[in-house]
Each structure stands twice: as structure tokens, then as C-alpha cells.
Amino acid sequence: MQEASLTGESEAELKDPAVLAAPAVLGDRTDMVYRGTAVAQGVGRAVVTGTGPATEMGAIADMLERTRAEETPLQKEIAAVSRSLGLLVVAVAVVVMVAVVLVHGVSGPGDLVTVLLLGVSLAVAAVPEGLPAILSLVLALGVRAMARRNAVLKDLHSVEALGAASVICSDKTGTLTRNEMTLTRVVTASGTAALSGTGYGPEGSARVVAGARDPVLAEARAVLVGGARANNAQLDGSGGQWTAQGDPTEAAFLAALPKLPGAADAAAGFGRLAEVPFTSERRMMSVVDEETGTGEHRLFTKGAPDELLARCSGVLVGNAVEPLDAARRAAAAGAAEALSAEAFRVLAVAARCLPGTGEEPAAGTGVLDVPAGDGLEHDLVWLGAVGIIDPPREEAGAAVARARAAGVRTVMITGDHLATAGRIAADLGIAPPGGPVLTGAQLDAPTDEELVAAARGTAVFARVAPAHKLRIVAALQADGHVVAMTGDGVNDAPALKAADIGVAMGITGTEVTKQAGRMVLGDDDYATIVAAEAPRGPDPRPGDVAAGRPGRAGHGGGRAADPGRAAAGRSRGGPRVARAGPHRGLHHAGAGAAVQRPELPLRDQQRVPPAVHEPVAVGGAAARCRAAGAGGAPAAAAGGLRHASPRAGPLGAGRRRGLPGAVGGGAREAPPAGAGPAVSEAQHGARRGPARAGETVPRSGSGAVPGPGTGARVPAQFSASRSPRDSSVSEARAMPAPL
Question: Which intervals of the chain are annotated as region Disordered (predicted)?
């Protein structure tokens, strides 16, 4: 299931009907499917347990409805000035009238009227009538400056809130990253290759980073061809925007083909005969293909490295197949573990030539059952393993660095796994490698005061639910920060509304998120947010911001927080307590009260092992069965294209506090850091037919890239079932899938 709309995680989640032994956070509930999520692959049957408000999507809608949008700092200051000015004007007018009466006296009604007119005239004259017009004009100039950067602000006051922000809380998937799984590493018997380029587009190239060039490229090509054949995803480049249909991890194989010369042509030289589907028990899938021209049948298998290694007896070395001895088996397992330690999604690829002994199915057999698959998936040839990750946006790293230079702290809040969040945060400079990461489960235990203290020293929050995001934003606000929150998914909407300024992505963002935010980035350029931030003193020490430590006066952002105000849940002109429900809002003590806020114990703060940062790219070629023998690997093909890498967008210049392109401001000092018998079914969307002989995969421009999938294996009665996106099908417990 693709659950990015709820969890923010790019990878599709495998569902299993087994009941969980203990309560789990939203992203780890493997026995449930949710309304608003999509089927990435497979067929299943489920029992509906909740509809409407009882679903997770309904809970988010309820949080969004009950969350009150925060006033901007400028609105609070204007309200405070207006109250003070009004009282002052009235007091002065009264004093003047009393003084006139005492000095000159009142001899009759006419004199009394004169004194009253004098007081009223004084009060009217003292009111700055031109201030609202001037203020609106200045704010409009700021809005226009942001509009030139494709940022749409819904109201004038939001531009000042953006410029005054001292903390930027950002979702990871789709905001700091592209939300497009990208294959960046291939590890084979002879070495390692890396692929440049990001996303589902064909731009990028391959290069060898370890080992001899020719053998590594030959083996890497075989890996990509095998992964692209054992695949049911599709790529569509129509409209100039490449999108994926199906499992994003499988789509990464298709996107990698044009980056390695000859790989796309080799993958197009097969036609599918049958498929052995993926199951949670086997943790692999296989396809039986026929090679164009020779008529030879090949088995391509993709899945978990440990499962494939157990079924392999040979290994591809260059263009030849050699026995998989104990040393080579250990090396392959170690390479896969090394990729996993770097927070990659790791898949292995193997192949086998079917010798024509009756094992291979006849053409058009379609989907094979698992016992038949087990009969084919033996004596495989290990081709290699790949590392897949959702890469950071090109502009995000520079934007984070500029925010740090401006004294603005960046905090990552994501529903993704702890290791992945730590790796991306280290790549972007948000947190140091191995820095503390708090998970959603750990956020349930601390009191509100403890969370305020813990948030000061934490820059990464992983595996969090929408309610956790709300609580984190409220904790930062209670600590005296002006908070900007960015996001693109439905799960980000409540936090966007509660923040001082919510920023939604215009291209990848959902309509709900755009409605909840006060600002929409038309081009999804994260650097636009930082362009509005004002420099607030000298650059901070890198460790101060990256590690989330308290800043120094003159070296951080924001205004120093008063302990009493923070404890009382207040900052800049008003309460910072979220107004709706138990999940938001920090319970506060009396104003000015001293409150102890102990840090979370170190045992409750998980640390991510330092990531190994190496350049990434890929290449390869495959051996013919006839040359390699009965256990050979796929054939090699020549040709291919190299594509230019995408250019990162420009970064704009920041302004002084408050009004981008308009008004300056003073420096700010950094604060211390159901029930029912209804049954629904779900299936993968309509699939295109397999890649036939002679078909080629487009390498540039637009147009659909057909995946090698077969027709959908759907029970006959499924055609009458509702789509998994139908509003009447909400949440359900997964049941065993019919085969």
C-alpha cells in the first residue's frame, strides 16, 4: 500500500493479516489499510472496521477543523499597539478637558460643549489615520516580492510572519526530498557502480566507484535489466513531468535504465510469459520472459537479498557465471548489509536460464501459483544488489545552509523510518551524523514541559503521526519561537494551520494542505522560504544549529525566551497553546511561574549511526545463456544515451526581518534552543501489457514508458467491487489474498 498521504513515507508498505502483538504507530500497523491510500501492487480482501469520521483521514479532518489558526506576530503587535494607543489617547483627552475646566472654568452649556469638542478633536488628531494605509502598502510590496518567486500568500500579514520565523519545521517526503524513489547504487561481484540524477526522469549517467570498469558495468547492466523485467510499475512522461504508477521502488528500476548504455534496449528485448507474484512469506517476485529472436526463456527474480542468496548457486562475474562459493556468498551478503546501514532500500536481483526441460510455462500462462514458482526459483545466478532512496531536493541543502546563516533553525518532522530520517538530515546539514532522533512513540510519554525542553535539543523527529506534528509545533511556539511549517500531504495539514505561517507545496501538495497553509509555493522551491528570512547577526557556529543546541546572543535567530512566558505557554504577544483537543496545546502553569523542564533521558533518544556519503551512479552488461551455460544470465545489448543532470534552481537573497523586499527590522536573539460485515477488495490499477519484442523504452522527451507487467490478476468477481479510492471504502483489516 502507498501510504504517503498519511505517513509521508515514500516506500510502499507490505500488509499482512497477522494481528500485531502490541500497539504500533500509524506507519507500523501492517494489518490495516486506510482510506485515502492506494494499492501499489497485489490483490487482497479486507474487512471494513471504520468509515467516515472513524477513519484516520477523518481524524485528521477533525483535528484540522478544531485547530485555530495562529495570529501573525504583526497582527498581535498591531492589536497591542492599538489598545495602548487608544487608552493613551482617551487618557490625554480627559486630562486636557479637566485641565481646561479647572483653569478657565465653565460658565454655561456652551463652554461645556466647547471643552468636549476640544477633547474629541485632540483624540481624533492623535490617531495615526494614515498608518493602516501605509502598513497595507508595505505589506503589499512584500507580497509582490514573494509572488515574483512563485510564492502565493493568502493574506498580507503572512509575509511578515514568514520574515519573522525563527524555526522552520519541515516535512521530509515531498518537501525536503522529491518523493520519487531513485536507484543510486548497484553492488555486484566485481565492485560498485553509482547512478547520477534524481527522480523518475531519464537524466543521469553511470560511473564505477569501486572495481574494474568493464566487469562492473556489465554486471550492473544485468542487474538493471533483471529488476526492470521483474516489475509491474509504469512511468509516464506526458506533459513534461515524469510520474510513476505502481510501486515507487519498482519504478526506480525503470527510471535507471536510460542512465546505463544498452540497458533499456536489453530490457525491451523480452516478452513476458508468466509471473510468480510477491508474497510476504517469500519476499520475492519472479517473471518468466522470452528473449526476442532466440526464443530462449529466462527467469528474473527480485526480492530480499537473504532470500535470493539462499536460492543462488552461481554469481555473475563480468560476462561469465562462476560458482557462488562461501567467500562470494559472504561478500554479497555484506554488501547488501552495508547498503542497508546507509539507509538505502535494498533489493537483490537474480536470474536463471530455463533449459527447456518442461519447467518453463507455455506462452500466455499468466500468473503462476506459489508452488509452481518455488519449482522454478532454484539454482539462480546472483546478479547483484541495488540501493534505492528518496533523494533530497537539489535546492534543499543550500536553503538549509542559508537559513542557518540567517539564524533560523530547521527541524525535520517526518513519518519515515528513523535511519532514513537521520541520513537525509545529515545530508542536508539539519543534524550531524549520529545526532539525536526522537520517534513518535517517544513523544507520547513526555509531559508538555518535558517536550518543550526536548525539542530544544532535537532537530529530527521520525515515525510521527499528524497529532505528534501538532504537538511539536505547539512546543516550539511555547518556547518563544515563531514557527513556519512546510508540508505537502494531508498528514501535514493540521500542523500547517497551527503554525504561525504554514507553507504548502503547490505542485506535489494536496488541496487540503493548500487550504490549510497561508502560503503556497507554486514551483515547490524550498529556497523561497529561506529567501524571506532576515539575517539576524553573524553566522552561528555550525554545531549550534545542526545539533539543535541553544544559540548564543547575536549568533542565533529569534528573541530570547523568558522562562516564565515559555512555561505559561506564551510568546510574542499572546498564548501559544493550541486551542483544539488534547493532542495540541501545552498545559501551562501560572504566568511567570518557574517550571522545571528536564531533558528526556538519553536512553529515550535514539541515535543514528553516521551515514557513509559517497557519490552515486550505475552501469553494466549481461552474459548470454549460450555462452554461460545452463545457469547463464541475460544477454547484453549495445547503445544507450547519456542525459544532462538537472540544474538546481537559483536561490534568492534574504531581507531584514519581517517584510521581504520591503521593510527592515531589528535583530533578534536566539532562544535556547468499526464494525460491520462489509467486505471490500483492492487491486493494483489497470496495467498495460508486457513489453513485447521490438518495443523500446523512450529515453528522453515525453510519452509513456510501458512497464513489463502482465495483465492484472484479478478474480472475476472483483470487477463489481469498489475502487480503493472510493469514499465508501475506508479502513479495513487485511485478509489473505486470493491467488
Answer: 532-599, 632-739
